[in-house]
Design brief:
Alpha-Beta Plaits; alpha+beta
């Protein structure tokens, strides 16, 4: 219990959403009907001529890269087409992908005009039948004849006018540059050595079609000596996954990469969407098996009858470890426990230790009335833990989650949180949302589960070009950091988030290089500091954002042990290497050494994520504490997930290092504040987590939470009482308003997240008309993040600070109405029947002590409102 418990807002009232102003920027116009006929008419004419022939299907398939029935047909446009998915479905086209193309997409020269800067290149992939292609030709001919679009067909006319290209989905689409690079990395020099790939089949809703493509894939593979290791098929409402795990010789894969257009090769198989390296889940390598550490001492026990509130997906922990005994329940859903030797069960043991006890020396206190369920999904090995090599990892995770939460006898019916401190080998985010990330997003939305996911660790050294070690040591700390920032920008594409950290509905956690206890002894030779003592900076090895569709990722940073750095010469350049083989720094965790339960010091984003899960569990317990906001009430699993998600982001603050970096980015980017803030978000997200603020109000303020449900174009108004004593006071103040939700997601849309929620303050004039108040009635302005950056994910967090020393005068019954509103964030994908549950967290804080108690005044006013 705390003296400053979090407070509960009264239930909101529902009304309509305020409509935003229409975007009036000039948009590309294309080249008109005749210009498009000159550019693309030959392709449609050829299709029409083929249909007039005796055997159109045979003739169409003579061109391996051409348009044909049941071959993925791609439209590339210079602008997205409103409601195109609905218009495509109306004539039988199943739209399988709508994807925003990269900004560097090469728009055809003849389509370029003065508005090219406002172009938004978009790709649409469909799977047409013979009848679909005939329909397409007929519509094109009508468009070319200048006929008016029939009812419901206008999006097709818009598409024809904005069309940059129409083509078949081909080998270069199936083999992305990132997949090719990782496959080359995994190839053996021995052509006869075997390598495993994952082949993702088009996620059509037609199950028979998917089954046929599975058979076609097996037949093509076996024709040149490959074999199928595993198949997977998930067919849920809103999530379809069809894949094959195969094994081929390295020589055959090398040939495919060098000649992807070979007619009988794997990359030309029509049913395949992507050819990928095998998805290998892995933990950070553990090198702690040295001298056993001294016992921690007596630890408070766990209650063996406490409810299971979280699920750990990892390797196998040592449930009987003195630090974990009776706190962890293991369910071997996938029969992996016998494959993990007890002497190697380090990573999951450390994660369970951090979740349940935090740093064993600095903290060590168990979370009240809480146990965790461990479902092993990795096999513990001598150095690390990896997923089974004979199974599709997406299937493994889906089955584990279904067993934990679904069915007549779920293993964890009271759990609301899943800790996922696992990264996918070589799968750094490059714009395409991975199938595993899509799965977690789907689970979060459909079942109300909060996933805490580690951002991932970058194993590669950071290269500082044209610098020697002595020169780096001689410069100031600020100059070192400037060199590091430049090197990180130059190598950004190699240091991005590791799948599935790009997921939209999850909380992604990055690592800050901070210990909870003092280091053991002085630093060894060669270690060079890159931060001042106590300075909060992202760990050098912590993967950086942004996430899917440039959403803020990581969401925040958590202390994850000091990452010591050694300088390494590299010709005329300098390498900075994070030292992992050290017990001098790091967090104190449970582990196994020389086959016996022990402790060690460790670090990394896995640790940060486990501590974030601990903070969430502690916050959930505090919701029910004496005088907690939901004392004596029952919260659903979804509401616990959403409230703790909102509180975690609300409790993050940009440290001084982030503010300083923003200043440097402003200079570098010539005052472009939006881009400067985005650059800082790549590393810090919303800031460093202050976990105590998830459980209690700040010392000079109050934190309030509420929940509600919205549908498309609805709004919910919460009345936040203002402290009477603050009116007219000459005192600085800040306010943070955070909204968290799980959005429905649709992989076929370019704007994958369907629901966008945001909060606005408003008041009424004398005539009763609604007025949006950008100052939120307290004369405030935007703090560290602007309104555009915070709209991209599934957490909307607006941070405001005072613009002057005086708060506007108001009466003793003043309330600040906060309107949380929902709109379609996808351009037509959100159903008006979808209920979007959300949580709101509001923190109001003054910057200096006063004679009055903000928390007490708001608490007293809320008690009247809640009880009333």
């Amino acid at each position: 219990m705390t003296d400053r418990p979090i407070l509960r807002l009264p239930n909101p009232t529902t009304t309509d959403r305020l409509k935003a102003r229409q975007d009036k920027r000039r948009r590309p116009k294309g080249v008109g009907r005749q210009g498009q006929g000159a550019r693309l008419g030959d392709r449609f004419t050829r299709l029409e001529e083929v249909f007039r022939g005796e055997n159109p299907d045979f003739l169409l398939r003579q061109d391996p890269a051409g348009i044909a029935p049941e071959r993925a047909l791609v439209f590339e446009t210079i602008l997205p087409i409103q409601n195109f998915q609905r218009a495509a479905a109306a004539i039988g086209f199943e739209l399988l992908i709508e994807d925003r193309l990269e900004d560097y997409y090469d728009i055809p020269e003849e389509l370029v005009d003065e508005n090219v800067a406002n172009a938004q290149p978009t790709l649409y992939a469909t799977m047409p039948t013979d009848a679909d292609l005939r329909n397409l030709v007929g519509m094109w001919n009508s468009y070319q004849a200048g006929e008016k679009a029939p009812r419901g067909r206008a999006p097709w006319w818009n598409l024809f006018g904005m069309l940059a290209d129409v083509r078949a989905w081909g080998p270069k689409d199936r083999l992305t540059p990132e997949a090719q690079a990782e496959l080359f990395q995994r190839l053996s020099d021995d052509d006869d050595a075997l390598i495993r790939l994952e082949l993702e089949i088009w996620p059509t809703a037609n199950a028979d079609q998917r089954s046929r493509w599975q058979r076609d894939t097996r037949a093509r593979l076996e024709a040149f000596g490959g074999s199928v290791i595993d198949t997977g098929s998930i067919n849920e409402a809103g999530f379809i996954y069809e894949a094959v795990l195969v094994e081929m010789s390295c020589g055959q894969v090398r040939d495919m990469l060098q000649n992807p257009f070979a007619p009988d090769g794997l990359a030309t198989l029509e049913g395949l969407q992507f050819i990928l390296p095998q998805t290998i889940g892995q933990s950070l390598p553990d090198v702690s098996d040295g001298e056993p550490q001294l016992p921690v001492g007596d630890l408070a026990p766990f209650d063996a009858n406490a409810p299971i509130r979280a699920v750990l997906l990892d390797g196998t922990p040592i449930a009987g470890h003195p630090a974990l005994d009776r706190g962890v329940v293991i369910e071997d859903v996938h029969d992996l426990v016998p494959l993990s030797q007890v002497a190697h069960r380090r990573h999951a043991t450390s994660m369970a230790s951090l979740m349940l006890r935090g740093d064993l020396i600095a903290d060590g206190v168990p979370i009240a009335d809480t146990r965790i369920l461990s479902i092993p999904v990795l096999v513990d090995q001598a150095r690390d833990a990896v997923s089974p090599d004979d199974r599709l990892f997406v299937d493994i995770i889906h089955v584990a989650l279904a067993r934990a939460f679904l069915g007549d006898d779920p293993l964890a019916p009271d759990a609301y949180l899943v800790n996922f401190s696992i990264g996918i080998k070589g799968a750094h985010f490059a714009g395409r949302v991975s199938s595993l990330a899509r799965l977690l997003d789907w689970w979060a939305d459909h079942h109300g589960i909060l996933f805490n996911v580690s951002a991932g660790n970058v194993a590669q050294d950071l290269v500082i070009p044209n610098m020697r070690a002595t020169a780096f040591e001689d410069v100031t700390m600020q100059e070192r950091q400037t060199h590091i920032e430049a090197a990180q920008r130059n190598n950004r594409h190699l240091r991005t988030l590791m799948a599935p950290a790009e997921a939209m509905n999850v909380v992604t956690v990055g690592a800050s290089s901070q210990d909870a206890t003092a280091p053991v002894g002085g630093p060894p030779a060669g270690i060079i500091p890159i931060a001042q003592d106590g300075e909060v900076l992202p760990a050098l090895s912590s993967a950086i954002g942004l996430g899917a569709h440039r959403s803020i990722k990581p969401d925040f940073l958590v202390d994850a042990g000091v990452h010591e750095v050694r300088t390494m010469p590299a010709g005329d350049h300098l390498r900075l290497r994070v030292m992992d083989q050290t017990q001098r720094t790091g967090l104190n965790v449970a582990t196994v050494q020389r086959g016996n339960p022990s402790t060690c010091r460790t670090r990394g984003t896995s640790c940060a994520n486990a501590l974030a899960s601990r903070a969430s569990l502690q916050a959930a317990i505090a919701l029910y504490d004496d005088e907690g906001p939901y004392e004596g009430l029952d919260l659903s699993i979804r509401d616990q997930a959403l409230i703790t998600k909102a509180l975690s982001v609300s409790a993050a603050r940009w440290p001084e290092a982030a503010v300083a970096r923003y200043g440097r980015e402003m200079v570098r980017l010539n005052g472009n504040h939006s881009q400067a803030r985005e650059e800082v978000c790549r590393y810090f997200g919303h800031g460093a987590l202050h976990s105590e603020l998830m459980r209690e109000a700040p010392e000079l303020g109050a934190t309030m939470v509420g929940v509600g449900t919205l549908r498309k174009d609805e709004a919910a108004i919460f009345d936040v009482p203002m402290p009477p004593s603050l009116a007219g006071e000459r005192i600085g103040r800040t306010m943070i308003v955070t909204v968290a939700w799980f959005s429905p997601v649709l992989a076929t849309r370019a704007r994958y997240r369907l629901a966008l929620l945001e909060a606005v303050a408003h008041s009424h004039d004398l005539l009763g008309d609604l007025i949006v108040d950008d100052g939120w009635g307290l004369d405030m302005r935007v703090g560290d993040l602007n309104k555009n950056i915070i709209k991209r994910g599934t957490v909307w967090s607006h941070r405001m600070v005072h613009t002057g020393p005086v708060v506007p005068n108001y009466g003793g019954d003043k309330v600040l109405p906060i309107r949380v509103q929902c709109r379609d964030g996808s351009g037509g994908g959100l159903s008006p029947d979808d209920d979007i549950r959300f949580a709101l967290a509001v923190t109001l804080e003054v910057e200096a002590e006063t004679e009055f108690d903000v928390h007490a005044e708001i608490r007293d006013r809320l008690r009247v409102g809640v009880l009333g």
